[in-house]
Amino acid sequence: MKTASSLTTSAKVIINKESKSILELPIQEQLNLFKRFGVLLFRDFGVDYDKMKEFAEQFSSKFVLDKDRPIVDSRNKFVTLVDPGMHYVSPHCENANSPFRPDVIWFCCGVPAAQSGETLFWDGVRVWEQLGEELRELFITRKIKFLQKFPPADWKRFLGVGSTIADVKRMLNDISGLSYKINQDQSVSIEYVCSAVVKTKYGHQNAFANSLIAEYKNPRGNVTFEDGSSIASTVINQINQVMNSCTEVISWQPGDLVMIDNSRFLHGRRSFSDRNRRIYSLLSYLK
Ligand SMILES: [Fe+2]
């Protein structure tokens, strides 16, 4: 096995030269690479979603389920297909519009799109450095607020079948920045106030790693400053310009596995039109 420093991205690419199983790789070594690079691409290991889960289990203390994504099969209830549809997905960190942001997002490729459909990523540390004095000042001094509403089916999916409002309260009580309301129809509305600039889990650097752009663009999304005032479109445009200048690309090959540090990197995807594209994902907290 040989490691190449980079193909077309700053991701660390680990290429299988000896027909090894991915499960034979030394865990501590991969973890050290992950802490250093934040995005690892394992190529030619022939990873399918069962292998992805098995590999991820060695690093993870807990898996979480995304409420919007279809589960792949009932044996493997945390592995899902990625966001439905074939549209462009703008930069976001997974579940960063809530206090339940997992440490890692894992992706593996069953079938790449015949054209386009690449997964995109952005280094939040680099984005922050390039935002410019004025925007940095703005987001240091002002927090942002995400509003979301979860029908019972959504929170039951997150908490498990048979969960109750008491479980919801137990989960949501006493979380810094979070307030919530249980509505008459048993849906739950949450307001989450946080900084758009976060400290990376490894290295404790400032990173513009959040879900601001994606929620701003999402017709169902709702993001404002903490006091409820809107974020000016000029600000969003400036952020987009910086994002566009540091977009990085994962050009999928079948069997690829990618591991992304969700405390530092944002991800998204290019649009595509190939219905056969199969990219699977998994969310976890590290041990
Ligand atoms: Fe995502």
Q: How would a textbook summarize the main sheet?
A: 8 strands, mixed
Q: Are any ligands bound, and if so which?
A: fe (ii) ion
Helix count from the secondary structure assignment: 8
Number of strands: 18
Essential attributes:
287 residues, alpha+beta, binds fe (ii) ion
What does this structure look like?
This protein has 287 residues and is of the alpha+beta class. Among the domains are: 2-83 and 102-118 and 250-286, Double-stranded beta-helix, CATH 3.60.130.10; 147-190, no CATH class. It has helices at residues 27-37, 49-57, 124-130, 133-141, 152-159, 165-172, 212-217, 233-245; strands spanning 2-4, 12-15, 39-43, 60-64, 80-81, 89-92, 104-111, 119-123, 144-150, 178-182, 188-194, 198-199, 206-207, 223-225, 248-250, 257-261, 265-269, 278-286. Strands 1, 2, 3, 4, 5, 7, 16 and 18 form an eight-stranded mixed beta sheet that branches. β12 (198-199) and β13 (206-207) form a beta hairpin. Residues 1-7 have low confidence and may be disordered. Residues 92, 94, 267 line the site of fe (ii) ion.
